């Protein structure tokens, strides 16, 4: 049975200025609702370009995208209400405390008053930041910043969560808390679109995967389907290297 | 509106937590205004309060020497010295003393200067009365009388010209007096009657009255404070471009701007919140500087700033100038790619706009080309507006066009920034 798609991508193409080669080359794919979808690929494959297009930060050269039933071209305002984004950068205000950052971002996402405060308390508690709630974020450790970076993306309970390398540069404990909570969030119905270079992490986290290289999707499906199409017992990393080659990428 | 509130709250907190930035926004402009006003005020006072050292060697001891020396002393422009090391100097000593910078100006009046003038006049008058009308034009070069003026190269050119003019005037008066004396004598001799001295030079017939004119009935006495406070306040206000552009670039570089743009808020709302917060800061900055001018300046010996109850006009002009500065900051922050680019471009461009706008030197003393260009500087519009209010007693409607120009400048900058933001998303 075909799963319901929450993100529908049709012939998506992106050419950067002064570049003859497409960053995204006529990609068509449906991302299933309520799943964790891993978008994997080597450096320069087109992952970030695709995520930036889906998040509305970049205009595509061609193609159609609908997110949650809304057209990316015409209904971007509606899309912004149902998505959450956790960028690779620590997109937080370092001179503001964790609480102040969440009050700002949560408020912009439409949360108000006691509802917002309850959510802030809940998520800071879950991610072990409650003691540091009134500390300026600039004084946080790398792992604490990553956890708070994730909270900002999920505080408003988005229908779709975009994660761009959410665990890069964090210790095992922080990574563990982040992954555990991503499962929890997903179990409550949030669709997660995830990109990472950590293939083992992707293997554990994602139900569906697409490997993208040079702007083209070279394989897609559930983990089992991808393994089935290659060597059934092999690790995702081996399949990845086989499909994308062993040459160094810039 | 609540989204803008949230964004403004964030911008406010970011500014409040940045102590160095706060110092740059408030303490530095106040210090700049105070220092520049004090400097200008002291320069003004130095000229008025016998601040310039002048050494005079009067070898004449007759009318000309006495007149020049007396007038220079009475002018109160100079601290007049007649000796060097308690000794009457020679001409070469005067020259040396000025060259070494001990005195800014040295004047040497040659010996027998009056006698030589008198002698020449007598010859000319008697020649004219004897019927030789060409004699007056036959003055040999060796007959010319030189009053030497030694000038320190660091002395202002305007001072040198003023002094030259004054000496010429004193000499001319003395010479005319001698001419009239000789004429009196000659006429008395010829007519065989005793006529009174024709010396009418003492009685001046042309007088000067000076009045600072402004619109309305009020008389405004311009001083260093009235001129410098608006000029440097405006300059400081435009320097907000640097922290403003930097904060925008910081948000862009750390991904916060991108994150905000994925949330239910638009680029316009993000910019609008910044405009509101920085407008409040600019107005606070302006108010503090005005209060400093009114209340603190008299305490430290400067004239008090007089705003003549024109708070509304001043506030509106300040708001328009602030909007122009903020618009410029948004344009720089959007178009510049790095902090360095923004900081260097913003600071140099503001200095250039200030220079051509008449902040440092008045526009009327600029070369013709710069005078033409100055009308394109928003700082010139702001400065004219402030001067009209503070010095020329203008009403709100008089300065309204300057305000409109400033707001238009702001609007053009904002449109440029919005367009650049749009194409940077579509055409990268």
How are the elements arranged and paired?
The complex is a heterodimer of chains A (250) and B (428).
Chain A: E1 5-14, E2 24-32, E3 36-40, H1 47-54, E4 62-67, E5 70-71, H2 76-82, E6 83-86, H3 98-108, H4 113-126, H5 142-154, E7 160-164, H6 172-187, E8 191-195, H7 199-205, E9 208-213, E10 216-222, H8 223-229, H9 236-244
Parallel strand pairs in A: 3-8, 3-9, 6-7, 7-8
Antiparallel strand pairs in A: 1-2, 1-4, 4-5, 9-10
Chain B: H1 2-17, H2 19-48, E1 52-58, H3 63-75, E2 78-81, H4 91-99, E3 105-109, H5 113-129, E4 148-151, H6 157-191, H7 224-238, H8 241-253, H9 256-261, H10 267-299, H11 311-335, H12 339-357, H13 368-374, H14 378-390, H15 396-426
Describe this structure in words.
The complex is a heterodimer of chains A (250) and B (428). Chain A is α/β, with parallel strands linked by helices. Chain A has a single domain, classed as P-loop containing nucleotide triphosphate hydrolases (Rossmann fold). In chain A, 37% of the residues lie in helices and 24% in strands. In chain A, a hairpin with a 2-residue loop joins strand 4 (62-67) and strand 5. In chain A, helix 5 (142-154) runs parallel beside helix 6. The longest helix of chain A is centred in the last third of the chain and has 16 residues, at 172-187. The mean pLDDT of chain A is 90. Chain B is mainly alpha-helical and 428 residues long. Chain B folds into two domains: 2-43 and 222-426, no CATH class; 51-191, D-Maltodextrin-Binding Protein, domain 2, CATH 3.40.190. Chain B has 15 helices and four strands. Chain B has helices at residues 2-17, 19-48, 63-75, 91-99, 113-129, 157-191, 224-238, 241-253, 256-261, 267-299, 311-335, 339-357, 368-374, 378-390, 396-426; strands at residues 52-58, 78-81, 105-109, 148-151. Chain B has a four-stranded mixed sheet, sandwiched between helices. In chain B, strand 1 (52-58), helix 3 and strand 2 form a beta-alpha-beta unit. The longest helix of chain B is centred in the middle third of the chain and has 35 residues, at 157-191. Chain B is elongated and about 110 Å long. The A-B interface holds A 16-17, 55-59, 77, 80-81, 83, 85, 87-96, 100, 103-105, 107-110, 112, 136, 152, 162 and B 2-3, 5-7, 9-10, 13-14, 17-18, 254-256, 258-265, 425-428.
